[in-house]
Every structure is written in C-alpha cells, then in structure tokens.
Amino acid sequence: MKTIPITPVPLDEVDMALFEERRKIYPRLQKGWFASWRWVLVFFTQALFYGTAWLSWNDRQAVLFDLVHRKFYIFGMVLWPQDFIYLSVLLVISALSLFLFTAIAGRLFCGYACPQTVYTEIFMWIENKIEGDRNARMKLDEAPMSASKLRKKALKHGAWLVLALWTGFTFVGYFTPIHSLAEEVFTFTLGPWETFWLLFYGFATYGNAGFMREQVCKYMCPYARFQSAMFDRDTLIVTYDTQRGEPRGGRNKKVDYKAQGLGSCVDCNICVQVCPTGIDIRDGLQYECIACGACIDGCDQVMEKMNYPKGLIRYTTEHALDSGLTPKEMWQRVFRLRTLIYSGILGLIILAAALSLAYHVPLKVDVIRDRSVPKIVDEGAIENVYKLQLMNTQESARQFQISVNGINGASIVSESQVSLKSASGKAVAVRVRIPAHAAEKGSNRIRFVVTDTETPAVSVTEKAVFLVPH
After folding, report:
1. Is 283 a domain residue?
2. C-alpha dihedral (439, 445, 448, 449), degrees to nearest 10
3. In the 3-class helix/strand/coil scheme, how is 8-20 assigned residue by residue?
4. Residue stretches of the chain with pLDDT short of 50
5. CA distance 424 to 403
6. Of 297, 324, 351, which residue constitutes the final position of a domain?
7. According to the model, what pLDDT value does residue 465 have?
C-alpha cells in the first residue's frame, strides 16, 4: 500500500471565516399600502405600551405587576400567585395565535407587531429625518469626520438614547408604580433594581433597534428557524412571480419588452433597497424574510410608473402561483382544515378563559390544621385548631362569616367573623368543637364555608380533617 505524503500548512497561512462579515444595510423608506399598515401597528402598539402605564383605576395604577406585594392589578382584577393558571392560559393563547397566523400568512407578527420590528422602524424614521434618505446616509458614512457629520451623528444617537431610556422607564413602570418611579428618577433616589432594569431595557432597545437590527431577526430570534415547520404550500407568503418577471433586465418604458424577450422585472433593485433584512426576494422565500411587504410596495410603484400590472411581488401561496389559482380558489385553500382546527382550539380556550374570569370568585381560602394534639374539653367535647389563610381580592373592604359542617353539632368556638381590607390577606386561628361521641375515632371530613356577609354569592368551601383521639 503506497503512502501519500501530506504537507502540513502553517496555521498563519490558513484563512478561516467562522462568521459572515456583516454588511451594513441602508433600508430605503418606502410608502405604500403595507407601509401604512406597519405604521398603524407602530402607533397602536406604542400608544398601548406608553399610555397604559399612566392610566388610573380606583385610585391606583390600572395595570401594575406588583412583585414586591405579589399582586397583579389589571384594571378591575387583582390576581395573586394562586392565579398563575391565567398566565399559563395567556401563554397558550399566544402560542396558538402565533401558529394560526403563521399557518395563514407567514410571519405577520414579525413584519408588523414584533417589538424588534416596531422599534427598528421608529429608529430608522429618526435616522432618516436627521441624516437624510438612503443615498445621503451612505454618503455620510463614507465621508471623513467633520463638524456637520459629528453634529448629525450626535443628534441621532441622542434622540435614540432618549427614546430608549424612556422605553426602559415605561417598562419598569409596569412593576413599580410609575408616578413614584418618576419622582424617584427626578430626585435621584431610584433603587438599585429599578436602576438596573431601566438601563438594561433601555440600552437593549438602543442596541437592538439602532445597531443590530436585522441581526436580531436573522441570528438571535428562534422563530426564524422553526417557522418553516408551520408553513405549507397554501400559506400566504411574500413571493416574486418568476414566470412573469424573468428574464429580468433594464428597458425603455416605450419599448415592447415582450418582443425583446424580457419579463416584467426591470431589475431596478428597489425590492432589495427597501428590505430591512437586505435580502433579494427574487431568489425565493428565505428565512430572513419577515413578511413586512416593503418589497411589494416598492415593486408596485415601479410597475405603476412602467404602466405594467401590479403584483409582480405579492402575497400569494406557492400552490396558487404554480397552479394559477384564482383569488377565490386561493383563499378557499388558505382557510383549510389545519387553520380551522387552530381557530377552533384557540376559540375554545379563549371562551373558557373568559368564562373563568367572569365567574372568578374574589375570595381565596387555604386551610391548614394545627399540628397540636386534639384537645378534650368540657363533658368530653373535642377541639381541633386550624389556621385559615383568607385573601380578599376585591378592591373594597369586606366582612366574611366562617362556618363549619360535616359533623353533627360541629361549631366554631373562636371568632367567626373576619374583616379584610381591600386586596389584602389575613391568617385567622379557628377552633372547631364537636360534642362527645359525635364522630368516629380517627380522621373525619369537615368543610369550612367562608361567605361574604354583604354578597352571599361570594362563598368558598374548603375541605379539612378533624381528628378524634383514640
């Protein structure tokens, strides 16, 4: 067997690129139907985020997640740690909604409502207003440093930082009462945790929307990686019509391009210039595409100038594109069994959650039997001691009556009425006594009933064990 000698290559002569070098993207701002809808979502989501924190309800913040006191205030509701199930239901609803929207029309959430997309859109708008359009920004970055360039850059980053810090302040304001938080900020008495999260969230916004932008969507967001599992040939996606557009090439508006053997695509690259992730949609569906529709707006305007039919790039399905389906046929396949199942399950969960909240009892009771030995008192009567943890989730002071049943003659020989302040809890020691020979020796089941004295419909029953000594 012949041995072939291998000459080792010095490591300093090996050029290895473990990561793709980033090419800065200069998205061109585009007007159009999809751009208008993106801005509608930007205004809606930000009005909701920045405005809700300042709303008041019953002399308190309307939406407040008070982690210190373990209470979540959501308008008229007060949720406690025992209501964690509602958070789980919310996460399930969010996941199913994402599956449904993705199965119908791809990455709609990414293109219109994702915080990364929304803040990137706002930051790019600020950048465009201060530094100019796409060409002006490219020239400014290539130009040597000057007083004018320094002024524009400083103004842009200053505006970005103000918006980012205000975003961080608002975020913290959902966990610390925002009016108190504002006072602490202006008096420089902000606590360490509030300071950390304000700066962390603020600089995360500044870095993600100002610098990383498409890198977050391409490399950090897991949704981009598993979205294809929810796609099929009847999912609406942003698609370039290859049959109509190819072969592409430049031409005069007055020339019959079909006679020259050309397709509708004039190869203007507008679709690439407006793309926030820098892809060419003409290369087919790519995981970097966030389905924002910017390329559709740009291409439609070019088609309009050339007096060509719009829709060279459009929302359609692979099935419709390959088989030439009519819009009606396409939409019939979009709302298929898969999406109907998602819709049905989602609707049932939302209905169940709504009914649960509507019939939510604003009283919580936990019963713990004291570990002490049962006590024999007058004439052989037996006493057990219990600790009842009562929580009033209503935002008004209430009075509750405690009673016990399950054993004939059982009664409460301690205080049986308890007053609770609004949205508060209290531990109450309760002594239960039964007559001699009223129950068998060992464990006996009893039930505590706690009832609102003003609203008897508000009542909770909890089981417990009464011990009779042998």
Report:
1. yes
2. -100
3. CCCHHHCCCCCCC
4. 1, 9, 11
5. 21
6. 324
7. 93
pTM: 0.82
Both 278 and 373 in one domain: the answer is no
Distances (CA, A) of 146 to 140, 141, 143, 159: 10, 11, 8, 20
Q: Per the domain annotation, does 116 fall within a domain?
A: no
Does residue 444 sit in the same domain as residue 372?
yes
375 and 310 share a domain? Answer: no
Per-residue pLDDT tens for 336-366?
888 899 899 999 999 999 998 888 888 889 9
User: Rounded to whole angstroms, how far apart are CA atoms 147 and 368?
Assistant: 73
Q: How many Å apart are CA 425 and CA 393, to the nearest integer? A: 8
Which residues, including other chains, have CB under 8 Å from residue 318's CB and lie 6 or more apart? 233, 234, 235, 237, 239
What are the CA-CA distances from residue 249 to residues 143, 259, 265, 283, 311 (Å)? 32, 13, 7, 15, 18
Residue carrying structure tokens 């016990």: 404
CB of 82 closer than 8 Å to CB of 70: no
Q: What token pair was written down for 293?
A: 């529709």
Residue 398 belongs to some domain of the structure: yes
From residue 183, alpha-carbon distances to 176, 180, 312, 327, 455 in Å are 12, 5, 55, 57, 40
Distances (CA, A) of 142 to 50, 152, 208, 324, 343: 37, 14, 23, 47, 51
Domain that holds residue 385: 363-468
DSSP string across 77-122: EEE-GGGHHHHHHHHHHHHHHHHHHHHHHSSHHHHHT-HHHHHHHH
Confirm whether 268 is domain-assigned.
Answer: yes
Q: Where are the alpha helices (DSSP H) in 173-237?
A: 178-186, 192-207, 214-215, 223-226
CB neighbour class for 81 (10 Å; exposed up to 12, middle 13-18, buried from 19): exposed
The per-residue pLDDT for 217 is 87
